[in-house]
Amino acid sequence: MLRQVGLAFKRIGLGYNRLAEQYPQATAIITTVVKTSAADAFAQKVIEGRKEMDWRRHGMFCVFGYAYLGVWQYYLYNTLFQRWCASITKVVGHQGSASVKTLIDQGIHHPFIYFPAFYLWKGVLENLDPLVSLERCWGDMWVNLKALWMVWIPAQMLNFTYVPGHLRIPFVAAVSFGWTVIISVLRGALPETEPSNQKPLEEI
């Protein structure tokens, strides 16, 4: 029985890999949307114990999963990072440049692009002034980054060192399932109180 289950998972994995090799960007985008949808549904129904799904919030995460986590990050990791780090890769090799890519991703991309984009998008759906959204973003930044770096510095080192390009975004999607659940719970619910009453990420 276990052997049959193992063989079934192996066939699924090999089929997914072939699909990702043939259609890398489409596979990456679909994977991130499915992952983001599943993560928020899990957060709402299991972790938060909601009887009814908040479909507005769910849609917010799915659109963000498509546009940012799928389209943008595929281009960032598989095109821009390769271009930016080409000279370094020539000197130290592909594995040697992984630390530089991780530094760019975690030290520049996430603090200055990912988190502001996330908070601005959430603010649009809450009808907030963009400056208010950014103020929230910077106010939450340090606790968010501490949670981020615990997961993503080691994960991205593995990703940029060993994972082939066509599986790079699916790898991120797999790891970020847990991260999306955390963000969904901590930042996803539309607030019923003033922003100053929201608990920081590490207190929840």
From TrEMBL:
Pfam families: Mpv17_PMP22. Keywords: Membrane, Transmembrane, Transmembrane helix. It is found in: Membrane. One of its GO terms (cellular component) is membrane. It is a multi-pass membrane protein. The chain crosses the membrane at residues 59-77, 167-190. Belongs to the peroxisomal membrane protein PXMP2/4 family. This is Peroxisomal membrane protein MPV17. It comes from Chlamydomonas eustigma.
